[in-house]
Write a structure and sequence with these properties.
Number of helices of chain A: 15
Strand order of the largest sheet of chain B: 2-1-3-5-4
Radius of gyration of chain A: 22 Å
Number of helices of chain B: 4
Oligomer: heterodimer
Number of strands of chain A: 16
Helix content of chain A: 40-55%
Shape of chain B: globular
Largest interface: A-B, 32 and 24 residues
Helix content of chain B: 25-40%
Largest sheet of chain A: 5 strands, antiparallel
Distance between the termini of chain B: 12 Å
Shape of chain A: globular
Strand content of chain B: 15-25%
CATH superfamily of chain B: HybD-like
CATH class of chain B: Alpha Beta
Number of domains of chain B: 1
Distance between the termini of chain A: 31 Å
Chain lengths: 474, 143
């Protein structure tokens, strides 16, 4: 007779989810599942819309990573038009996508995860929030806010607004970057680099106090998938897909992102609205793979920028093969933030950024188009089919978070088995289960936002409904 | 005297965008920074920190008449995601940047939050009344 511990709602993630922990007759954790209870339906909304509307519409998919959806959608539109995008437009898209990685990662690290990291997994729940972080180190919290502000400001300056910018369109972008905008962006860079150095030093100084979490909170072999450039370095806008295994071996390289459907499959489970993508050659669920910061650093041979390269070399020494510990998503996220600041600096110094030729106009020349890029949480694919009038007949979005679905479920189960004692439930045990998910920074709701004011109540009941234990928060 | 008016809402969700209409009615004014924001985000804490007064304008389906009231900074009681409440934002500004200004919340009547960029009659009228409330505050000075 199995019992079920239900964590509902999950906190400090984007969207609505719950976790079931199943307990066997011996009172031990037997298995665990991460259920996503949001239903998005955006693919259906796209049907019948003109392709030129798609980037603006897709910006609305998400309030935290709209730029990646705009970029992937624009690239799918570029393919449908069959045009070459002006270099200045590509540079704008690259810069804004890096800015989004910076602001999104800053939110994840400083606001959502640093309460656990700075105050401890067992700190009182009333302290485990941004105000608890401020109480302990206001300067650190201020730097987090400034880093996010920098990212948001770049998006606003180049993309027109901070949330849901729609400046990028099929064929390019709508406006050129001015000298004043370029100079304001460049002026932010020194402070941002300094803040990233401080954040990385801080993270590395506390990491050894989480050895048990590093070892047992989502540490398992899997494949890793990410985009790399021609040099095998980190790439967020345009490149080829590389897949490596937990030993660090390259499993597949040079894969065309426009043919993603030939090597990535999507399975469904009745207990979750989120799909379960897998690497087709290894089948389901054996083809489990991870995307996002940890995966990108594992598949790439270098960062391609000097400061991030130094950090990445040190990062790779944390394991003999690939770095498989989910906890290290946090450190990987910081390294990517540093990389993003360096790339923004490079792009701001490029005279081509100011070129006023930013858009190639055309009518639809193809019926099928695919766009991909690296979003903060991993590789993103937009796949559209249009009719002769350029109206979308069908759309498929392969979202980064869903590609981590199998891994997140594995992480939840491993963490629950190690940390949760069903007969002696403590809030800190359950926080670790949630923290395993937070490593992946899942964005579940995409366009719906706060988790809300709901309290978290966890109850253990027998099959007959008898209450065996209860933990409450909020 | 520097006042920031933050008009909050999604203009593609019907009356949720009513605060943006209030911003239109307020127009440009000396010493007043009227801003439209999709939602409140943590980095706004620094951007309001030097203001002497901050007015948050937001759609509220729970009121039938526009109402302006002092905002008491609220300690955080809910898990943070990527947006914050007005009370939390003021607390962040106080604790991180030493903000000492006065804060107000202007509730604007609203009833329709479905997709679309038009306002209900209730929200249209509410926006006019809310703009009058905020203008009166700006003319008479925050207390």
């Amino acid at each position: 007779m199995r019992e079920r511990i239900l964590i509902h709602p999950m906190t400090r993630i984007e969207g609505h989810a719950k976790i079931s922990i199943w307990v066997n007759d011996a009172g031990e954790v037997e298995s665990a599942q991460f259920h996503v209870t949001d239903f998005r339906g955006f693919e259906k909304i796209c049907e019948g819309r003109p392709l030129h509307e798609m980037p603006g519409l897709m910006a609305r998919v998400c309030g935290i990573c709209p730029v990646s959806h705009v970029v992937a959608s624009s690239k799918a539109g570029d393919a449908l038009l069959g045009v070459e995008v002006p270099p200045a437009a590509v540079k704008q898209r690259r810069m804004v996508n890096h800015a989004q990685v910076l602001q999104s990662h800053a939110l994840s690290f400083f606001h959502l995860s640093s309460p656990d990291l700075l105050l401890g997994m067992d700190a009182g729940v009333e302290k485990r929030n941004i105000f608890g972080v401020i109480e302990q180190d206001a300067g650190f919290a201020r730097r987090g806010i400034r880093l996010r502000q920098f990212g948001q400001r770049v998006i606003e300056l180049v993309g027109g607004k901070r949330i849901h910018p729609g400046w990028s369109v099929p064929g390019g972008v709508q406006t050129a970057v001015t000298v004043a905008v370029r100079d304001e962006i460049a002026a932010w860079v020194p402070e941002a680099l300094e803040s990233m150095g401080i954040a990385l030093d801080r993270m590395k100084s506390i990491i050894d106090s989480f050895l048990e979490e590093i070892e047992h909170m989502g540490n398992f072999p899997s494949l890793f998938l990410g985009t790399v450039n021609d040099d095998g370095a980190l790439e967020f806008y345009d490149g080829r897909i590389r897949i490596s295994d937990s030993e660090g071996n390259t499993v597949a390289d040079g894969l065309d992102p426009l043919r993603y459907h030939t090597y990535l499959g999507e399975a469904s489970e009745e207990w979750s609205f989120m799909k379960f993508p897998y690497y087709k050659p290894l089948g389901y669920p054996g083809g489990r793979y991870r995307v996002g910061p940890l995966a990108r650093l594992n598949v790439a041979t270098s960062a391609g920028t000097p400061r991030a390269d130094r950090e990445m070399r040190e990062f790779k020494h944390r394991s003999k093969g690939a770095v498989c510990q989910s906890f290290h998503y946090h450190l990987a996220r910081l390294i990517e933030m540093l990389h993003a600041v360096e790339r923004i600096d490079e792009l701001a110094a490029d005279p081509e950024l100011l070129n006023e030729d930013v858009r190639t106009k055309a009518i639809p020349n193809r019926r099928e188009g695919i766009g991909s890029c690296e979003a903060p949480r991993g590789t993103l694919f937009h796949h559209y089919f249009v009719n002769a009038d350029g109206l979308v007949r069908k759309a498929n979005l392969l979202i980064a978070t869903s590609q981590n679905n199998l891994a997140m479920n594995q992480a939840v189960e491993q963490t629950a088995k190690h940390f949760v004692l069903p007969r002696q439930l403590r809030e800190g045990m359950l926080n670790r289960v949630e923290a395993a998910i937070r490593c992946y920074d899942p964005c579940l709701s995409c366009s719906t936002h706060a988790v809300g004011q709901m309290p978290l109540i966890v109850e253990v009941r027998s099959r007959s409904g008898e209450l065996l234990d209860r933990v409450e928060r909020g | 005297m520097h006042t920031v008016v933050l008009c909050i809402g999604n203009t593609l969700r019907g009356d949720d965008g009513v605060a943006s209409h209030v911003a239109d009615l307020l127009g440009a004014r000396s010493g007043v920074d009227v801003r439209r924001v999709h939602q409140l985000t943590p980095e706004l804490a620094e951007e309001i920190a030097h203001a002497t007064a901050v007015v948050f304008v937001d759609a509220d389906p729970g009121v039938t008449e526009a109402r302006l009231e002092r905002l008491v900074p609220a300690p955080q009681r809910s898990p943070l995601t990527h947006s914050v409440t007005a009370g939390e934002l003021v607390l962040l500004a106080e604790q991180l940047y030493g903000f000492q200004g006065v804060t107000y919340l202007c509730h604007v009547p609203a009833e329709n939050f479905t997709e679309g960029d038009s306002l209900s009659e209730v929200a249209e009228a509410g926006a006019r009344a809310a703009a009058q409330c905020v203008l009166a505050l700006l003319v008479n000075g925050a207390k």
